[in-house]
Amino acid sequence: MTELQPEVTALDSETLEFASQIADQVESFLIALRAIAQEADGGRAISLLLLEISQVLLAGARLGAQQDFTPIAEYQPDVGPEADLDEMRLRLADMLGPVDTYGLVFDPYVPELTESQLSDDLTSIASDLENGLRHYRLGNVTEALWWWQFSYVSSWGNLAGVALNALLSIVAHDRLDADLPVDEEEQIAVADEMLESGDTPAR
Predict the structure, then answer these.
(1) Cβ neighbours of residue 44 under 8 Å, at least 6 residues apart?
(2) Predicted pLDDT of residue 188
(3) Pfam families annotated for this entry (predicted)?
């Protein structure tokens, strides 16, 4: 469980417990993502990423269902330098290979198809979550909750959603053996090979 430094706070016990649960979910996601990148097992990675993103999206949905948290100060308190996640990003990109790049529509109400990379988006999600976790560990509970909630709505929630959809697409093509346009066949063949090279772990 993520440890919280002692602080004098006006937050009620229910909010503190909620923050503790979110912090644990965030920490679990960050640990798992680093482990997936480190192990570089393509077959297991797709299933594990699908599981971990689904779980962190549950944390985001819980944050989104709360009333808006308000930071205590106008500016975020200094929590030190951001974690260096570039090595993890490069490992993810290398592991995912041709299925790293995918098409996404960030706003379905203003549809514009763009290209993105799963490795970049997963790292961006991790960066947002890690920033809030540093606030939490320093005892800035209200700031942590505000940041997690704000960045969920403005950034990482959407990225996690489109990344989840991309991973589901890989699994669907593998399981359903759908007829594909010629220009997609090579990419999906790689995805099939990745999935077949590892067993889905029991969880």
Answers:
(1) 36, 198, 199, 200, 201
(2) 61
(3) DUF5063
Handedness of CA 124, 167, 184, 108 (dihedral sign): negative
Residue 169, domain extent: 13-71+83-196
Residues 59 and 22 sit within 8 Å (Cβ to Cβ):
yes
Residue 23 has which token pair?
């912090």
| 202 falls within a domain | no
**Total structural domains within the chain:** 1
Q: CB neighbours of 192 closer than 8 A, spacing ≥ 6?
A: 173, 174
Amino acid at 193: E
Q: What percent of the chain has pLDDT over 90?
A: 62
Read off the pLDDT band of 132 (50, 70, 90).
very high
pLDDT above 80 (res 59): yes
- What is the CATH number for 117? 1.20.120.1550
Confidence of residue 187 (pLDDT cuts 50, 70, 90): low
